[in-house]
Write a structure and sequence with these properties.
Blueprint (H helix, E strand, L loop, with lengths): L4 E4 L23 H4 L16 E3 L2 E3 L2 H13 L1 H4 L9 H4 L2 H6 L8 H25 L1 H9 L4 E4 L8 E2 L1 H10 L1
Parallel strand pairs: 1-4
Antiparallel strand pairs: 2-3, 4-5
Helix pairs in contact: 2-6, 6-7, 6-8
Length: 173
């Protein structure tokens, strides 16, 4: 039997689970509570705005913290522009602004290798901090049961499975 699969992104349509393109749900009755939450998919996105702390700094979105961590490998001062504490326009913008500034500083070869080795753990740590403090997002994540969680966006060729979210869900149970 095929596993349940949920597809989400920052501006997902507010459809019942299993009704979006490429989704599959064996038993929709297992998700009745999830379907009652307006735009539940959007809360799973890295662009969902909910202030949280990571490594002592405040961020508006997971995307801000993730891009800030990457930029900080090359230039700590520039990486701090993604923190609310900096009062920088990048930090005060939405997740799209954070994403647009992902190349504020280019990493050298060694930094790229280091980033590629740590980025999955960093994403897990950042997202965990957000889901610990956002009760709505945590409730939604837990109501996805054991379904596979896949992120996509309109021009993305193939969806990406978000193992870090599935691990957070398991860790929060």
């Amino acid at each position: 039997m095929e596993e349940d699969k949920l597809i989400f992104f920052s501006s997902s349509k507010d459809n019942k689970i299993g009704k979006n393109k490429n989704e599959f749900i064996n038993n929709p009755d297992e998700y009745l509570e999830l379907n009652k939450i307006k735009n539940f998919r959007r809360y799973l996105s890295n662009f969902d705005i909910y202030e949280f702390k990571y490594n002592g700094y405040s961020y508006r979105t997971i995307e801000h913290a993730f891009q800030g961590a990457k930029i900080s490998l090359a230039n700590k001062e520039e990486g701090l522009k993604f923190t609310i504490d900096s009062n920088n326009e990048i930090a005060l913008g939405d997740g799209k602004i954070a994403r647009k500034n992902r190349k504020l500083v280019n990493l050298n070869k060694e930094q790229i290798i280091e980033w590629n080795n740590i980025k999955h753990n960093i994403m897990y740590e950042i997202a965990l901090e957000k889901f610990k403090v956002s009760t709505t997002a945590r409730d939604i994540l837990l109501k996805t049961n054991n379904c596979q969680l896949w992120h996509t966006f309109p021009r993305m060729k193939y969806p990406m499975r978000c193992n870090y979210l599935e691990k957070i869900r398991d860790d929060l149970k």
